[in-house]
Request: fold
Amino acid sequence: MTATPPTWDVQADVVVVGFGAAGACAALEAAGAGCDVVVLDRFCGGGATALSGGVVYAGGGTSQQRDAGVRDSPEAMEHYLSLEVGDAVSPATLREFCRESPGMLTWLERHGVPFEGSLCPDKTSYPTNRHYLYYSGSELSAAGVAPPAPRGHRVRGRGTSGKLLFARLAQAVSRSGARVLAQTTAVRLVTDAEGGVAGVECRTLRSGPGGPGGPSSRTAPGGLGRPDALDAPAWARVAHRVLHRWSAGPYLYAPKLGRLLHEPVAWLERRHGRPLLVGARRGVVLAAGGFVASRQMMREHAPAYRGGLPLGTAGDDGSGIRLGEQAGGATAFLDRVSVWRFLSPPAALLSGVLVDRDGRRVCDESRYGAAIGAAIMARHRRAWLLADRATIDEARGQLRRSTLWFQRVQAFYLLTAGRVSAPTVAGVAARAGVDPAGLAATVAAYNAIAAGGGPAGGPEDPAGKPAELVRAQDRPPYSLIDCSIRPRLAYPAPMLTLGGLVVAEETGQVRRADGTVVPGLYAAGRNAVGLCSRSYVSGLSLADCVFSGRRAGRHAAAARPVASADRPAPAAGERRGYV
Ligand SMILES: Cc1cc2nc3c(=O)[nH]c(=O)nc-3n(C[C@H](O)[C@H](O)[C@H](O)COP(=O)(O)OP(=O)(O)OC[C@H]3O[C@@H](n4cnc5c(N)ncnc54)[C@H](O)[C@@H]3O)c2cc1C
Reply:
C-alpha cells in the first residue's frame, strides 16, 4: 500500500517569516501586488520593532523637514550616509535609498504611521514628547564634510514610539488581506529538487486566525488545515502569549531575569507545538530579526561584546539567519555589533572631555552614541568623562526639561553614583584610577583650544567637535564620570547585531557564497545585510527594515512560481531537499 503524500497544511504565494517592521513591510508590498500572503511569527508579532524608539532615518527633503524649515537634499544625505554605511551596500543602493527617502515616509504615512516636523533644539539620544525630528546621527560632527540636516523622524506617539509604529503597520497588514499565523515558529525550509525554497516547516500552537473554534478545515480561508484535535489547548496558547509579553520588559532591562521568565514559554512550545507545513508558490521572505539573544552566535561571531545589554527580544535568536544559511545562503558582517554609549541628555555633558585610562582623549564627545561606543570598545572598554563644576551644574539644570524617564534614570546615575570628584584634576584622576599626567595634559590642551588656541589658531578641535561645544573645563571641583562599557543596571550599554544573510541588492534574494541566488528565498531587516550593517545611527535599522522589507515583498510577489509550487508537500521520507 502506498501512503498518500501529505499536502501543505497552508499555502500562499508569499510566506513571510517574522512579523516585525521588515516582515510587515514585505507583507504589505506582496499583498498590494495582489498576492496571497501568509506571515508567521513565533510570538504575536512586533519583535524588537514594537519595543524600539520608532525613529526612522529619512531625509532628502521629507515633508516633515520642510515643515520644520530644514533644508536637505538626497545628495547631502547620501554624502553623510556614505561615511557611516561604508561598503555595507553598493553606492547605487545607497543612492536609491536616499532618493526614495521622502517617498518612503509618505508610504508609511499612507499606512497610518504618523510623523511630525517639530525640530528638537538639543542634541539628544532621543527627543521628548514635544519633538519628533532631530539630529539622530553624527551629522553635526561631520558638518565639514557633508551638509548636516536633522533626519531622525520619530513616529509621533508618546513614550517610546515603536509600539505605535508596529501597531499601525499591523493594522495595515490586516487590512491588506494577508493572513498572520501567530505563535508559529519556522524551524526548517523545504527545498525542491532544484534547490529552490518551496515552503517552511513550522511548529505552531494555533488553529488559525479564528483561534479555537475558528476555521480549521483544509479549505477554509485562513484555516491551518488541521483537525481541531491537533491544536494546543487554549490555556497553553494564552499562557504562551501572556508569559512572553511579561518577559519582554525584563528581557530588555535585566536579561538574566528575562531569560528565566522566558523558559516556560519555550517549554510550552516544545510541549504543545504541532508540526505545520506552509507552502510558498513564489517565495519565502526571512524577516525574523537579529541574533543578539543567541549566546552561542554572539560567542561565535562577536565574542568581544559580552557585558552589553542585548537590545531585542527572545526572538532575536538568529533562527532566521540560520534557516537561510542551511539553504545555502552566505552571511556577512556578523561580527558587527552596535554598542551605544550616550553622553546626552543632558546636553551640557557634551562639552566635557572623554578620556581613557591613560588620560588620552577618546573621540569627539558630540558624536552619535554608537560611534562613541565603538571608540570606547577600542580603548579596552574603559572611558571617563571629565567635567568641571559649571558643566555639572548646567547638566543638573537640564535634567527635567530634556529627558524621558529612561534617560532620567541614566542621567541621574551619571551625575550621582557614576561620578567621583576632587578639587584638582590630579586628585580626581587618582580617585578614578586614570593616569594623572595624561589627564592633565589632555585637559590643558582642550582648554587651550576652547580659548582659541586650536591648531589653526582658532577654536577648531582636532577630534572634530563643533566649536560651540568646546568649552573650557577649568572650574573646580572636577568630576570624572565612569562611561566604561560593563554591566550596570542604571547605565547599560545596549547592543544590537547588524550583520545577516547576503542578499542581491536589486531584489533582496539570498545569495550563496558563489554569488548565485537561492531560488525562492529572500531576506530583509536584521536577517539580512543592509544599510546599517557596518555602522548604525538612530533610525537606520528601521529605515532599512522598511526599505529591504518592501524590496523583498515586491520581488517575491513578481517572481515566477517555484517549480514545486502546486505539487503536494514532500513526504517526510522523501524530503531530500529538507534543510
Ligand atoms: C529598545 C530598542 C530601541 C530601538 N530603537 C530603534 C530606533 O529608534 N530606530 C531604529 O532604527 N532601530 C531601533 N532599534 C533597533 C530596531 O528596533 C531593530 O533593529 C528592528 O526593529 C529589527 O526589525 P526586524 O523586522 O528585522 O525584526 P523584529 O522587529 O525583531 O521582528 C522579527 C520577528 O520575527 C519573529 N521570529 C523570530 N524568529 C522566528 C522564527 N523562527 N519563526 C517565526 N518568527 C520568528 C520574532 O518573534 C519577531 O516578532 C531599537 C531596538 C530596541 C530593542
About this structure: The two ends are 28 Å apart (CA to CA).
